[in-house]
Amino acid sequence: MPVIHITNRAGAESTLEAESGISVMENLRDNDYEIDAICGGSCACATCHVYVDEAWAAKLPAQDDDEKGLVEDEPTCKPNSRLSCQIEMTDALDGLKLTIAPEA
Amino acid sequence: MSEHIVIVGAGHAGGTLATQLARAGDRFRITLIGAEAWPPYERPPLSKQLLMGEVPTEKVFLRPESFYADKGVDLRLGTEVVSIDRAGKTVTLAGGESLAYDRLALCTGTAIREIPVAGRDLPGVHYIRTIDDTLAIREKATPGARVVIAGGGYIGLEAAAALRKLGCDVTVIEMMDRVMARAVAEPVSRFYEAAHRAEGVRILLETGVAEIGGNGRAEHVTDSHGQVHPADIVLVGIGVVPVVALAADAGLAVDDGIVVDARARTSDPDIFAAGDCTRHPNALLGQTVRLESVQNAVDQARCISNELTDKGADYAEVPWFWSDQYDLKMQMAGLPAPDDQVVMRGNPDSRSFSVFYLRDGKVSGVNAINVGADYVRGRKWIGEGRTVDAARLADTEIPIKEV
Ligand SMILES: Cc1cc2nc3c(=O)[nH]c(=O)nc-3n(C[C@H](O)[C@H](O)[C@H](O)COP(=O)(O)OP(=O)(O)OC[C@H]3O[C@@H](n4cnc5c(N)ncnc54)[C@H](O)[C@@H]3O)c2cc1C
Ligand code: FES
């Protein structure tokens, strides 16, 4: 099982044994990392916002215009911001490091 | 001792509230009671991905079923609450069992509006409100199956798109002179009407359903012009009504929805309500509304959980909503009124454009079709009460951020 290293909103670090084939958002949501993911992954809400560790940024699938438009407008957006519902978890992402963005 | 919170209705609002309250640890003991057999789930995929068979059923659950027990939430499925005793602070379940509560949250949602015509009880007449409804339709939606859909609102049209994708023959019967008339401005209606026709959907406007007929099951629909449409599946999507009987019987204030204040409190201080079933004030909109959306279900659930954890704040959120049909992803925000000024931005022929609504120069709504950036900007402007120049807004040479 691939793992994801997560820093939660309170700043605590933990490692999640993730499931491949579903999104990073679903992995976070189903394990109660305080992600609301209101729209269920339809790229419509930005409540699955995370910061991806720089080292991983380039290894992720590229951002499409929809995701870009939505996340760029979050007041908490940073250059390494991603919407976790738009990233499918795969074995290749074993060791992915991310931080849950604060609630907007 | 922990405060016992009883939540009636394990839908989007109820499930969200339980999840939020569980984060407060021992402070609350939570019982979540749902009439359906399924754990809390998302309804939007019912007329989209689940109907098309693109996702397994578990994928629409808000959380895995085991989540609730893991978090100490007592989830009681297939269980209906039949009455509330406010003086004794108990609820009675269908089996006769009674449960004491410290605080009660009503998240009972809506129920489908039945079509008031002869033949409505025939087998083969379907609605889409639950997972079971969607699975039953999908079972029969084989290529070539003839589907007659009563109602050209967003659910009827999403179903039409999904069923076309499955190879069904689809007819939509709509009473008004355009589709989605309640939700969007005319240019958007016309665009969707054309898009559906291009996909091979028959759309009949200014037409009602007069009768559903058949021998022991629904086999045809007669429309208000007397035309008969053979049908293997009749699908009705003519709206919903709030589920308020429990609240009304208990003497709580009800007015097309359970009446709550800005903190989601009913007329009884120990009883809250959230989601589709509520009529609530929204300071941002300056009016009282009843909304049917995931956004409202989640934000009101959060409003209750904040109130119960001493972080209470008045409800003031921009309403937003989305609809997926074919490759068209529409995102909507605000609550435009029929007489608001309509400003087109972009060309519908490109299948990527938006419509903004202005009231006294201020942005009151946006419908963005395949342009996320316009939606995001519009939603923000609505929240800020911003005034924009209609001519600049219509000019796509000016980037949306600079309008
Ligand atoms: C097909 C479809 C597509 C949709 N698409 C979208 C979309 O794209 N975007 C969007 O924002 N919204 C969409 N919606 C609307 C959205 O799903 C609702 O607004 C949302 O589910 C409301 O949540 P709720 O918790 O208020 O009610 P519900 O989710 O309806 O939950 C209420 C629950 O309470 C239960 N209940 C009622 N009375 C009792 C009782 N006495 N005892 C026990 N249980 C009880 C019911 O069985 C039900 O399970 C769609 C809805 C449907 C049906
Ligand atoms: S879950 Fe809504 S945008 Fe990711």
Main sheet strand line-up of chain B: 3-2-1-7-19
- Which structural class best describes the helix and strand composition of chain A? alpha+beta
Task: Give the percentage of residues in beta strands of chain B.
Answer: 25-35%
Under CATH, the topology of the largest domain in chain B can be stated as FAD/NAD(P)-binding domain
What does this structure look like?
The complex is a heterodimer of chains A (104) and B (403). With 104 residues, chain A is an alpha+beta fold. Chain A has a single domain, classed as Beta-grasp domain (Ubiquitin-like (UB roll), Roll). Helix content of chain A is 18%, strand content 21%. Chain A has three helices and five strands. The longest helix of chain A has 8 residues. The N and C termini of chain A lie far apart (32 Å). Chain B is of the alpha/beta class. Chain B folds into three domains: 178 residues, FAD/NAD(P)-binding domain (3-Layer(bba) Sandwich), CATH 3.50.50; 112 residues, 3-Layer(bba) Sandwich (FAD/NAD(P)-binding domain); 76 residues, 2-Layer Sandwich (Enolase-like, domain 1). In chain B, 23% of the residues lie in helices and 29% in strands. Chain B is built from ten helices and 26 strands. Chain B has a five-stranded parallel sheet with strand order 3-2-1-7-19. In chain B, strand 22 and strand 23 form a beta hairpin. The N and C termini of chain B lie far apart (56 Å). Chains A and B meet through helix 3 of A and helix 8, strand 22 and helix 9 of B. Bound molecules: flavin-adenine dinucleotide and FE2/S2 (inorganic) cluster.
